[in-house]
Q: What sequence folds into this?
């Protein structure tokens, strides 16, 4: 009976809960949360102002104070101004524009990381002996700050998929940090000279270079251990007007080795090159300027070789990708290992395929050519603008016309063009006359696109690159011309015209018609 009475009293109390006195908190939780968010946004914007090249150094203090007070308001103002500008430039309807912006915002949220923390926790910098940057420097608080700054720059470059990192003195008070992304330099930020000296010395220390030497050029290298793989970096220093500059080459990329059908060859070019790779002997020569993707194509060709039936030996400077089933030899001039000496030793290793990272001198050219003539397939690269300049350079290196015509199978000229960003590319605004001209050539005008720019491509309108190739097959007619000393630019062009062979510009225009790139990009890389 007492239990029933007790439960009844509880139910009555719950039913009349509105009569109980409400407990009052000493603060408003919503206002407190708003204050915390406000403070964090202000601090976030102060960080951007501190490293921004737009704010002069003498005004940094005032700008930081203003940002601490007006951070979120400044955020909203800049957001609406930028949104209005992009809407006007896009030329789209309001609904279409807002839909595209919403998609970009979702993608940005998925991939966004705060400046200064991008990947730094998952990247460890190692010197040639395997010691981390922390072990090289120590674990004091001041040392940890050096490690954090240096690691952030390297991890940001990896996140941007940069091929090079340049740290250059701008004046006596500041340095510029620039990344080369898709073949084009971007200035990421400017840092003061004290921070720059810390970064330069940290990178030199981990690269096995002399920190005290500021003027004499030095070379070194280090590695970065990521969660998914290890990447290598080659470092070169030089004294400059206002300090010391560093050039850091990122060796390899997270995408790994591409296959031959991924580099950008047309179907006809792919068949021609594939047929030449299976031959037992002869040379396939890749030519192009620095940064034109020669090494990537070289590895793609190697990827199509059956390593179980053919002995592949490579000589490189440096080794950019590790191929488990190939024997890779790295050039080391300090230890007396040159391309020529390595090639001599390779010929005693019973190779079927010899890969020469670069033909630089007379001895290397002669040994590689003779190896191609005596039953070995030789894949090699050489710096050169086009076919004719590469052939002339081989002759200039002392290669006889007889050896050149007998050993050389194919010469490949190549360039890299940037791909339009799939997220933001838009149809080009063509006049009626331009559209009609495309139709006469059998090209759909709707396929012609232009670069626009979004967060995904860092506002450039381009993301990624693809190769354009010009393949010259050394047939009997051309070999006879070489033997008869008839090698000239005019005659080679005339011969290629008769044979209806494509060139780099024509191949680039095919990429434009396929909505992969733009006229401006093709002009930029083929205007030699």
A:
């Amino acid at each position: 009976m007492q239990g029933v009475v007790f439960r009844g009293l509880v139910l009555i109390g719950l039913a009349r809960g509105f009569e109980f006195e409400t407990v009052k908190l000493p603060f408003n939780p919503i206002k407190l949360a708003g204050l915390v968010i406000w403070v964090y946004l202000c601090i976030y914007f102060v960080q951007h102002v501190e490293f921004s090249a737009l704010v002069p150094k003498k005004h940094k203090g005032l700008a930081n104070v203003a940002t601490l007070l007006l951070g979120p308001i400044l955020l909203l103002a800049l957001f609406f101004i930028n949104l209005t500008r992009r809407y006007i430039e896009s030329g789209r309807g309001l609904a279409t524009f807002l839909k595209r912006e919403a998609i970009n915002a979702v993608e940005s949220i998925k991939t966004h990381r705060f400046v200064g923390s991008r990947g730094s926790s998952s990247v460890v910098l190692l010197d040639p002996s395997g010691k981390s940057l922390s072990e090289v420097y120590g674990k004091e608080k001041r040392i940890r700050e050096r490690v954090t700054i240096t690691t952030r720059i390297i991890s940001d470059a990896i996140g941007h998929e940069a091929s090079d990192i340049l740290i250059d003195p701008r004046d006596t008070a500041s340095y510029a940090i620039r990344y080369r992304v898709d073949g084009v330099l971007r200035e990421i930020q400017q840092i003061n000279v004290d921070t720059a000296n810390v970064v330069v010395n940290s990178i030199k220390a981990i690269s096995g270079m002399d920190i005290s030497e500021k003027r004499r050029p030095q070379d070194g290298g280090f590695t970065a251990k990521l969660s998914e793989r290890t990447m290598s970096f080659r470092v070169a220093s030089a004294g400059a007007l206002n300090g010391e500059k560093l050039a850091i080459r990122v060796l390899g990329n997270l995408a790994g080795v591409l296959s031959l059908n991924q580099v950008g060859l047309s179907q006809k070019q792919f068949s021609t090159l594939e047929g030449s790779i299976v031959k037992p002997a002869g040379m396939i020569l890749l030519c192009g300027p620095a940064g034109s993707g020669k090494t990537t194509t070289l590895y793609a060709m190697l990827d199509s070789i059956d390593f179980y039936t053919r002995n592949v030996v490579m000589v490189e400077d440096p080794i950019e990708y590790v191929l488990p089933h190939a024997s890779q030899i790295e050039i080391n001039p300090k230890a007396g290992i040159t391309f020529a000496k390595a090639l001599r030793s390779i010929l005693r290793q019973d190779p079927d395929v010899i890969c020469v990272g670069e033909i630089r001198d007379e001895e290397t050219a002669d040994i590689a050519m003779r190896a191609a003539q005596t039953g070995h397939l030789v894949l090699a690269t050489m710096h050169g603008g086009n076919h004719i300049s590469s052939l002339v350079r081989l002759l200039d290196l002392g290669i006889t016309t007889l050896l050149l015509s007998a050993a050389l199978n194919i010469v490949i000229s190549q360039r890299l063009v940037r791909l339009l960003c799939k997220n933001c590319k838009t149809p080009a605004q063509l006049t009626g006359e331009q559209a009609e001209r495309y139709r006469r050539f059998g090209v759909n005008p709707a396929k012609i696109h232009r670069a626009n720019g979004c967060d995904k491509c860092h506002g450039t309108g381009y993301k990624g690159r693809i190769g354009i190739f010009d393949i010259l097959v050394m047939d009997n007619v051309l070999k006879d011309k070489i033997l008869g000393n008839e090698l000239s630019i005019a005659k080679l062009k005339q011969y290629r015209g008769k044979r209806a062979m494509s060139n780099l510009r024509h191949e680039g225009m095919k990429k434009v018609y396929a909505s992969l790139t733009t006229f401006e990009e093709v002009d930029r890389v083929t205007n030699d």
In short: The chain has three domains: 29-87, 123-251, 260-418+465-508. Confidence is low (pLDDT under 50) at residues 9-22, 107-121.
